[in-house]
Amino acid sequence: MTPSHYVRTRLPPDLIRIVRLPDRIGVTQARMAGSRSATGSVLIFLDSHCEGAPDWMRPLLHRIKHRRDAVLTPVIDVINEHTFKYQARDVQWDSAPEREKKRRGSNISPTRRVH
């Protein structure tokens, strides 16, 4: 069974669009091609090793609803590439300065762009 067939037989046709490119162009260019083909109001890109845990998308969409120009990076669960073991919340970026962390008041509050 091909990946396309698998997806098409398990998800509603208006939920997902598969874009086939004639050549290998790299992940960034492939995502750009996908974004040009997209019709939804929100784009989410996940790599094959990422796993969406229950309710992981709700806080992202809530932030986007209130700030349309937000660029969000979730803390995601991953599947280990060597063992295929599920690893909860394995990827985290924590580069906000202390003053910004204090201003936010909560770990789930948005971080302002830091120059």
UniProtKB/TrEMBL annotation:
Keywords: Disulfide bond. GO terms for cellular component: Golgi apparatus. One of its GO terms (molecular function) is polypeptide N-acetylgalactosaminyltransferase activity. Residues 106-115 have a biased composition (Polar residues). Residues 90-100 have a biased composition (Basic and acidic residues). SUPFAM superfamilies: Nucleotide-diphospho-sugar transferases (SSF53448). It comes from the Eukaryota. Residues 14-100 form the Glycosyltransferase 2-like domain. GO terms for biological process: protein O-linked glycosylation. Residues 90-115 are annotated as: Disordered. This is Glycosyltransferase 2-like domain-containing protein. It comes from Operophtera brumata. The lineage of its organism: Eukaryota, Metazoa, Ecdysozoa, Arthropoda, Hexapoda.
